């Protein structure tokens, strides 16, 4: 929005210029919260904002003449910046002229000369009075004290300046009145009227009665601002009807109230030929026109002079590049910022005029931003699409300003915009399924496996913590078996594991980031317990109390190969640890019996003698583990004359109990489960590869 106020130049500091809160349509109490601040485009601070009242106040007394000189309008441009949301408002304050300056002549006394032969109607130009005020407060008219011979004439110059001239109305007689004393009064149009006076002394001279005449008296020249130094501007056309020295004209500059003496630094005048040339570079942006007053004086006695007025208007050339001003930049910006979010406020200006000063802004099309025109020479850089910090953490934005001149001039400014992270990515495990192995009976705190997850976010949004979820698949909570380091994802045992009780665990692991809201994902680690030879063989048959012996009768004439009995044993371990072998413990005497190593069958190895007594055998059952564990049983074999063995009864093997059946079933299920999990894992690995 753009606000417009006006204030007279003579107001004291603290004067209320305008009600900002009302004109902006915002509540007064919100101004401080929105950090309303004032930015002066000129660099000088003339105003201040009363945040409590919401009004624009005068900070220092203004002097229109010091601020704007002779410019017909005097405006001060301010910028109001408010945040939350970020807004920019332009304020234009017109400084109104007050009649605080009285007209003043360059010299308090003006001395003029006129020949006595001057004809009625002869004009004597006078110095123009100066009044820094403008408009109606500037010089309105001139008055001349009463005289029988002279009257006052006022001419209006091309730029509107009133030029007083004394006009001869009645012929002069030097012998009667050689000197005339008059008073010239300059009056302005203010209220009350202010005035200034100058004494005019007119000396009546004899002889040279024709002044130089400029043709035309007022002329205009158009000149490009980039012409080289020494370029001819014009040659004055001045004639003098007198002859000899009275007709020989010399030229000189005459200063005026329009930038007094300034043009003499830029232009040179040949006193003999009347040629006006440039003697310094011209700049349209500094001044678009110059008023040059030239005095043409002859060498008569007394000398007579004429006056030429030349207006030099400069043609603007595109000699200034545009200027880019970054008023405000909001960096960093959230990656979830909605399209249309204001990123920066950009101002642009070009000191040239017309098409040379018309500027357009450009940015690269591939960027997710666009420029929106706020008002004249001010733009907003807004988002035009979604942002993703994981793809681009920041942008180097180059703003290019190009004017419409010929040839075109351009400038550019680059600034970096950082994209702030938003927790929009959940952590991701390197694999949703993992397999680990741990030896049974390992000490609590043994490291089992380390899971790893990554999060493309940054900062707290990428700070991960790991935890174990309870899946309810075991009799006891999974947390009683395993724990996990929440920082590095390493899984440890909480207690010693028993292969015979649990052969495999499914450990669900959750990883969660520290964002708000937090995001998470899960993975499953299959922990296989490796068997350890921690169970000795258990002799199922024959079942005898510890320290007792099993008695077995056989025929006295049993032949070699005769099956005496069979030792049956089981081992709770698995694999090699459950492979059992049977053997006779060495004794001092040779025994006529042997034990099958794998089956545990005890057979007669050699024929028995008739009178042979009973034999005591110690059968040892040993597993294949490392270290190997064993069990033993004592069997006493007694040969009997009339013994006929019913092996089905004598062997009397126990039927497998339901517990043994269940153990076998569990072993089969475990083997099938391990095989299926292995196949699944191999399939996943193959698919990932």
UniProtKB/TrEMBL annotation:
CC terms in the record's Gene Ontology section: plasma membrane
Record key words, sorted: Calcium, Cell adhesion, Cell membrane, Glycoprotein, Membrane, Repeat, Signal, Transmembrane, Transmembrane helix
Bilayer topology annotation: Single-pass type I membrane protein
PROSITE patterns (alphabetical): CADHERIN_1 (PS00232), CADHERIN_2 (PS50268)
UniProt keyword Cell membrane present: yes
Domain Cadherin: 47-105, 106-214, 215-324, 325-429, 430-539, 546-658
UniProt cross-references to Gene3D superfamilies, sorted A to Z: Cadherins
TM segment ranges: 663-687
Gene Ontology terms, MF aspect: calcium ion binding
Compartment(s): Cell membrane
Any one Gene Ontology BP term: homophilic cell adhesion via plasma membrane adhesion molecules
Record's protein name: Protocadherin gamma-C3
Organism per entry: Calcarius ornatus
